[in-house]
Amino acid sequence: MIEAVVINRVEAESKDCLTLHFEWDRPVSPGQFVMVWIPGLDEVPMSISSIGPEKAMTVRRAGEATEALHALSPGDRMGVRGPYGNGFELNGMRTLAVGGGVGMAPLMPLLRTMYADVAIGARSADELLFEEEARRYCDKVETSTDDGSRGMRGNAVQLAERMMDEGDYEQVVACGPEVMLYHLFRACEARGVHCQMSLERYMKCAVGLCGSCMLGKERVCIDGPVFDSARLRALSEFGRSKRDAAGRSVGL
Ligand SMILES: Cc1cc2nc3c(=O)[nH]c(=O)nc-3n(C[C@H](O)[C@H](O)[C@H](O)COP(=O)(O)OP(=O)(O)OC[C@H]3O[C@@H](n4cnc5c(N)ncnc54)[C@H](O)[C@@H]3O)c2cc1C
Ligand code: FES
């Protein structure tokens, strides 16, 4: 069921991301997502980046649908249905959270709830997301940028590898571009560190019926989007290929 929600606040986060805050009284777990309906245009999946009484989604400008979401102002309405997906499993393990680009969005509800150290990666300083807010909740927050404009010069995987080698983490929780997640997964496997990673696939129904989000035998909309180490090991497409809107397999 699509529900109309009213935008309360719009917050600029980085060069190409903003956060839309809205009232929605559905319970949401960290890592779950909604389908956002933009009348006359499209319906697209978005993670929930704040799960309190006021919810939020953090949107990176990518194409037509996200451009339309960027044009919304306080008082405007949008349609949402959900929440969908399994979300992250909260547990007591000593955790490193790793976010690449807008991949920080589904990690924020976790960071407000559990103790974790954080590695945030982006192409450049003006694309880093949620560094200041993460510092409010977490003792250790490190950043990396591809161009070296803030934090370590390099990518989020290189930063996470350094932090894993210095720390004694039992678990990594992560979201970001799949190639980044694949290399991070391999780094975790090499160190015996358990992981939970949030993956993306093309979504239409979001309720397990249409098959557009298949990843091997898994439907990312209902079996994911969060997969743990054991399930990632079994996914031969992980880090290699995905399906486009027409269902064709394309390389990442
Ligand atoms: C579970 C999940 C959670 C997501 N969370 C966020 C988030 O918190 N913030 C954010 O900015 N983005 C998020 N995305 C990505 C977001 O859905 C796409 O960026 C958006 O759909 C792009 O639409 P567009 O029309 O603006 O761009 P387009 O030009 O149509 O597409 C740009 C890219 O987005 C992908 N995309 C387009 N439509 C879909 C779709 N229906 N399902 C999946 N991918 C699509 C395309 O494959 C393409 O790679 C998430 C995706 C998934 C699957
Ligand atoms: S989006 Fe339809 S089965 Fe997952």
Overview of the molecule:
The protein has 252 residues and is an alpha/beta fold. It has two domains: 3-84, Elongation Factor Tu (Ef-tu), domain 3 (Beta Barrel); 95-251, 3-Layer(aba) Sandwich (Rossmann fold). 21% of the residues lie in helices and 36% in strands. The chain is built from seven helices and 18 strands. The protein has helices at 64-70, 108-111, 131-137, 156-166, 178-191, 220-223, 229-233, and strands spanning 3-14, 17-23, 33-38, 42-47, 50-51, 54-60, 77-84, 95-100, 116-122, 141-145, 152-153, 171-175, 194-198, 214-215, 218-219, 226-228, 241-243, 249-251. The chain has a seven-stranded antiparallel β-sheet with strand order 4-3-7-1-2-6-5, with helices on one face. Helix 4 (156-166) runs parallel beside helix 5 (178-191). The longest helix has 14 residues, at 178-191. The two termini are 33 Å apart.
What's this model, at a glance?
With 252 residues, the protein is of the alpha/beta class. Helices cover 21% and strands 36% of the residues.
Radius of gyration: 17 Å
Give the count of structural domains. Answer: 2
What share of the residues does DSSP label as strand, in percent? 35-45%
The hetero compounds bound to this protein are: flavin-adenine dinucleotide, FE2/S2 (inorganic) cluster
Number of helices: 7
Q: Regions with pLDDT < 50 over 5+ consecutive residues?
A: none
Helical residues, percent: 10-25%
**Which structural class matches the secondary elements?**
alpha/beta
Largest sheet: 7 strands, antiparallel
The global form is globular
Mean of residue pLDDT?
Answer: 96
CATH topology of the largest domain: Rossmann fold
- Order of secondary-structure elements: EEEEEEHEEHEHEEHEHEEEHEHEE
